[in-house]
Structures are given as C-alpha cells and as structure tokens.
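Good day; I would like, with your permission, to put a structural problem before you. A protein sequence and the structure tokens that stand for its backbone fold form the material at issue. Thank you for your consideration; the sequence and its tokens are set out here:
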Amino acid sequence: MNQQELFLLADATLRSVIDQLTPEQLALPAPTAWSRTENPTLRDILASHAKDEAWVPDVVAGRTIEEVGDRWEGDLLGDDPIGSYDRLNDAATAALAHPLHLERVVHLSYGDFPMSTYFEHTTFYRTFQAWDIAKLAGLDDTLPPELVDGVWELVEVQVEGLRAIHVFGPEIPVPAGADAQTRLLCVTGFWHE
C-alpha cells in the first residue's frame, strides 16, 4: 500500500468515527492539546478536520496558501457539522481518485515537501485522531488492521526522528501480549486505558 492509498484509508477511518458522533457528543470537552482553541469541544476538533479536508484538493493540485487565499477561513461546518464535514471529505476523496506523482512537491503551511511526505503526515494525524475521538466519545476505537500495519511500517523506521520534533510523545512500555494496535499506540506515546 503506497502513501496515497494509506492516506485514503486513514481518512475513511476518521470519517467513520466522525459519522458516528451525535450532536450531544460534539459538545464534549476535548483535550487542550488537540487544538489552539481555548476550552475546545469535539465540534472545534471537527472544524479543524473540516478545514484540513477542504485543503486536500488544493494541496494535491500544487496550489500555495497565497493562491488559495482565505477561501477556507471561517466556519465551514454551519448548522450541519457532520454533513458539512462529509461533503468536504467527499471532495478530498475525489481529488485522490487517480494515482498521483508522490515525489511531486506540494506546499504546506510548514514548508514544501514531496506529496508522499504530506500523505504520511496527514495519515498519522487522521489515524491517531480517529482513535482519540472514538475513545473520548465512547465509541469502538478499533482501527482497521491494514491501517495499523501500514502506519507501523512508516513509523517503525522514523519514530525517533518524529519524536524528536514532537510529532509523537515519549514511548509507553508495551504490555506483554499486546496486539499490533496497542503496540503502535504505545510506541508513539498515545496509549492510555
């Protein structure tokens, strides 16, 4: 599975969690580490993911922040938060409907990178957020095994470098007999009961 395919799987996994949220759950407090918003709720986290989804077609098309301007500023969720997110996710998925040149440089808010790196970064973000949101909302937090395996392949060879730049927290001891998902969550510092 290449980075584009893994990204699509992570994106679909996050959407499957988001689509299970109720309006009441969107009002749940979210950890402050998940957002720059003061006292964030799950709706604030959803708004961040909606913005992230909105940018996917522009990023893969090679557009810069200057070219896109303020198109994706403001409230993208409106009165139908889940539906609005789903429409943006549909557009992002459609933008990836054909194989892309993974070494082509794309423009991100934190620098220019090969598209493969963009997909890796966003795959990590979506995968761990899917797990975190499911856990917070009391939903099934089991990730697809092929997603866990694909993320592990990417993480295993670069975890210390990613930890050094604070993508991942300190490693948590892996419990004896842990499954692949628990191992991934422990090594990346996400695991909690």
About this structure: The CA atoms of residues 38 and 192 lie 24 Å apart. Residues 3-140 form a domain with the Four Helix Bundle (Hemerythrin (Met), subunit A) fold (CATH 1.20.120.450).
